[in-house]
Specification:
Transferase(Phosphotransferase), domain 1, 530 residues, 3 domains, 7-stranded antiparallel sheet, single chain, 38% helix
């Protein structure tokens, strides 16, 4: 839902007016035309503005007014930050006027602007969650508070808004209803040119681990802040405590929270999920959290067996969090390996494309085709197919394996393919195959006779490897995969069927630089076999 177009500041002053009343109160006129009487002595300082007690001039209804002074144009970043809450407030007003669900959001009653100052007129709150949580001592009442906070996040999500600074002091109780407030850090996801001015902004004890590594805020970062708020409400203290302010990044990334001593396994497990270091392991969205909380409240009677199973599940969640520090240290390595795997697959594609380019200079119909994890090098008289799959980083000697797979000519496997990465993060593709003299080949598959032991050596899982026994005359060959090696294998596989391709490839080789060792060995092998 989109708000009305915001007008430039210098054109909006006609919507506001203020004057000094006889009792020294400040009178402001909002964009709605209503006037509001502000008590300038009842001040409560805030990060971007000050909040005053006020009342409606027409009926005396108590309200609060937030006054935000805008900086000069030279400080453009601070200007945007201070205008943000005003913009989101107008969007909430527009949404409420059009029937959107905003019961658990603090929607401004009016807005005004005068003399380079912004005014937000809001319902007056009884207090915030940080101040009033002591009033809620039993678990059920705390869950009801949480349900209302999460309902606010669901409503924000429906409007396409991220809060980005959820914490107890930004949750207000108004007329017995808890409402999410203070949208100075919020972001409207529908903005086509969203500002990056708040990258990494927030309140440190509530900032998700990914924010500390420079990632952008998402729904999952709001859920992490909800997890800290939930823990704090249930336990009376935050899940993490630091001695120094600069310890927050490390603590959020590596330290696991202490288990909650609750008699409610479902709520315990939900809280730990919200606090998970991995955004993907947190609940999908606020609606999922709301569904869990509501079902937890409605389950007034539960069998002993179900309670036992729920406790087991909660214990398992606790155990997982105890190992999170180790997992986080491995995550960086895993991310680097995944990036290297993507890069190395592109390298394999490039090798095939270059081989096809080389062939086309002599064989116009040659082509390389990529289909997901399969790469095929086609020429009129031969075809070479490479199929690979992620190796889950199985160790090949001292190097992790990124990919593993096979090289086929038709239905005949002619080689074992794998990609390894060294300590300098350099990846190389290796080809292992056997050259078996023709007189010892007993069947179409004997060209590549792998044993299970051979396959496991190079990271191939047992069910992927045929249990062939290599004949004694077999000669194992291992090569770093290159364009030349691909052309060599392609020529070998086509040799028994038609000699013209071998002739064309030899002509291609001779056209290249004959001083290259790789090509000289390539030519010598073929010339010695004729």
């Amino acid at each position: 839902m989109c708000a009305r177009q915001r007008e430039p500041i210098d054109k909006r002053n006609r919507y506001a007016d203020h004057s000094e009343a006889g009792d020294s109160s400040l009178i402001i006129t909002g964009s709605s035309g209503r006037t509001w009487k502000v008590d300038p002595t009842s001040i409560k300082r805030g990060g971007f503005g000050d909040v005053y007690h006020a009342s409606a001039s027409d009926n005396g209804a108590p309200v609060a007014v937030k006054r935000v002074a805008l900086p000069g144009a030279a400080d453009n970043l601070d200007l945007k930050r201070r205008q943000r809450e005003f913009d989101i407030g107008e969007l909430l007003q527009f949404a409420a006027a059009n029937g959107a669900e905003v019961e658990h959001l603090l929607v401004p009653l009016d807005t005004a602007e005068f003399n380079n100052e912004l005014f937000l007129v809001m319902p007056r709150a009884d207090g915030n969650l940080d101040e009033l949580r002591g009033e809620y001592s039993d678990l059920i009442s705390k869950i009801h508070v949480l349900i209302q906070v999460v309902e606010g996040l669901v409503e924000l999500s429906g409007l396409g808004i991220l809060h980005r600074d959820l914490k107890p002091s930004n949750v207000l109780r108004v007329g017995g209803v808890w409402k999410v407030a203070d949208f100075g850090m919020s972001r409207n996801l529908e903005e086509s040119t969203a500002s990056h001015s708040f990258m990494g902004a927030g309140t440190r004890p509530y900032m998700a681990p990914e924010i500390w590594t420079g990632q952008r805020a998402t729904v999952k970062t709001d859920l992490y802040a909800l997890g800290v708020l939930t823990y704090e409400l249930l336990e009376g203290q935050r899940p993490f405590v630091v001695q120094r302010g600069d310890d927050w990044p490390r603590v959020h990334r590596e330290k696991e929270p202490s288990p909650l001593p609750l008699g409610n396994p479902t709520l315990q497990r939900l809280t730990l999920r919200l606090l998970n270091k991995d955004p993907a392991k947190r609940p999908r969205n606020a609606q999922d959290v709301l569904d869990i909380l509501r079902s937890n409240v409605s389950a007034t009677s539960t069998s002993v067996a179900v309670t036992h199973l729920a406790q087991k599940a909660a214990d398992r969640e606790v155990q997982m969090h105890r190992s999170v520090a180790v997992q986080n240290r491995l995550q960086g390595l895993e991310a680097r390996l995944q990036a290297a795997a993507r890069e190395s697959f592109e390298d394999l594609k490039e090798l095939a494309f270059r081989a096809a380019d080389e062939l086309r200079s002599q064989i116009p119909d040659a082509v390389a085709v990529v289909d997901d994890d399969e790469i095929t090098l086609n020429a009129p008289t031969a075809s070479l197919r490479m199929t690979v799959s992620p190796a889950h980083h199985v160790a090949t000697t001292s190097k992790p394996t990124l990919w593993q797979g096979f090289v086929f000519h038709g239905h005949r496997m002619v080689g074992l393919l794998f990609c390894v990465i060294d300590q300098q993060r350099r990846s190389t593709w290796q080809l292992v195959h056997y050259e078996v003299p023709q007189r010892h080949q007993e069947g179409p598959d004997s060209f590549a006779p792998w044993t299970e032991e051979t396959a496991l050596t190079y990271g191939i899982r047992p069910h992927m490897a045929p249990r062939w026994i290599p004949p004694s005359p077999g000669k194992k060959m291992q090569s770093t995969l290159s364009t030349e090696v691909l052309l060599e294998i392609l020529a070998k596989t086509s040799k028994d069927e038609e000699g013209s391709l071998l002739t064309d490839i030899r002509r291609l080789a001779q056209a290249r630089n004959r001083e290259t060792d790789e090509w000289r060995r390539f030519l010598d092998r073929f010339e010695g076999e004729e």
